[in-house]
Amino acid sequence: xxxxxxxxxxxxxxxxxxxxxxxxxxxxxxxxxxxxxxxxxxxxxxxxxxxxxxxxxxxxxxxxxxxxxxxxxxxxxxxxxxxxxxxxxxxxxxxxxxxxxxxxxxxxxxxxxxxxxxxxxxxxxxxxxxxxxxxxxxxxxxxxxxxxxxxxxxxxxxxxxxxxxxxxxxxxxxxxxxxxxxxxxxxxxxxxxxxxxxxxxxxxxxxxxxxxxxxxxxxxxxxxxxxxxxxxxxxxxxxxxxxxxxxxxxxxxxxxxxxxxxxxxxxxxxxxxxxxxxxxxxxxxxxxxxxxxxxxxxxxxxxxxxxxxxxxxxxxxxxxxxxxxxxxxxxxxxxxxxxxxxxxxxxxxxxxxxxxxxxxxxxxxxxxxxxxxxxxxxxxxxxxxxxxxxxxxxxxxxxxxxxxxxxxxxxxxxxxxxxxxxxxxxxxxxxxxxxxxxxxxxxxxxxxxxxxxx
Length: 454
Ligand SMILES: Cc1cc2nc3c(=O)[nH]c(=O)nc-3n(C[C@H](O)[C@H](O)[C@H](O)COP(=O)(O)OP(=O)(O)OC[C@H]3O[C@@H](n4cnc5c(N)ncnc54)[C@H](O)[C@@H]3O)c2cc1C
Prior knowledge:
This protein has 454 residues and is of the alpha/beta class. 19% of the residues lie in helices and 26% in strands. β1, α2 (25-36) and β2 form a beta-alpha-beta unit.
């Protein structure tokens, strides 16, 4: 008997390829689903590695798995439900996936049912296939710069590995800080001649039958909210920065330490920073309560005291368990808004002043570290992308979909959206939507029309 996979592969191999924009969890999932069913996919990512936010987040609710644990690409036809580490997911070897990192969409022309697309690919300056990860280039590089992956909490070189499990697994040169011909020490030392500092930007033109927007989201920069002292006091960080600090592969190897290396004894988390705030983003970012609780539980393992100042704790369905566990584990909850944060110039201690709604008192919380649960906002450059594609954006800068029951369709036929590009959401909902997009594209390309029987 012929396998379903091979029947589908044979019947849809003639359909036009699909362009997926964004290589986070959403984009990777759609690309793998379609590719496993024989559809050609071009997955483009603007950064030098796949992974999106997941690369920075250490552990995920609801399973507390490593954030890099994603499904293997071959699960469909071999071991169902089998999970593999992200860096072994096989996406790079998939015959139906063309992966282009450091690439962005620059123009689109709609021709009947096709999209004629121009892509701009920025140079990596390191040949992915030749790089053997010997680290000699980074060791000899004299340029030390802040590390954006760790939100500038530590440093890297101008030639660097974008993540410990980067896909593609290869070094890359930062063109903004590299000294190029003035130095070129990395070129001389590379044992495989993988580095070409003269590599140039490339324009690629292709035709696609569908486009999937999976461009994700960003954490809001809380600097304009002066009362929180972000960017003023080193002791005030965001939840993504905290995620890097609790990660054993992060800048402090998972330990929460003060600047002088002494262990941190207490942390105060402040919820709804720039969310549910008419001055900035009036919506609820929906997942910050749960990840603040997830981080509280991780921090409690280091015997650190945690206070959470909140407006409402919103932990839907099974996420309530995180709230109950955190409460049982001694996390202190204070219902109230922050009035301001101060640093005592003599003791150098940080004080968070919170007006407690229940007691109507102003509380003075002396704390070693303040963590802001900043709003989740749309990705940088999304306005430009919407203009190129002629897509509508909602009032908050996310891609709206056309109806409650059709949460993957945009205002342009055959352009779909999934994941946090539509609104802030967790990974299970991201995967659900990515599955729905894959199914919509598969149905469009399927050999039979609905109701037709062969
Ligand atoms: C602090 C924090 C903790 C979290 N913890 C959890 C958790 O424990 N469990 C959970 O389920 N969820 C958690 N989440 C939510 C989770 O991060 C998201 O659900 C998930 O990242 C969404 O995936 P995505 O692919 O839609 O978006 P992203 O992860 O944002 O990926 C989007 C990708 O698109 C790329 N991109 C953007 N614009 C372009 C463009 N124009 N062209 C090409 N590429 C582009 C980006 O570089 C990025 O790689 C957390 C979020 C935060 C902020």
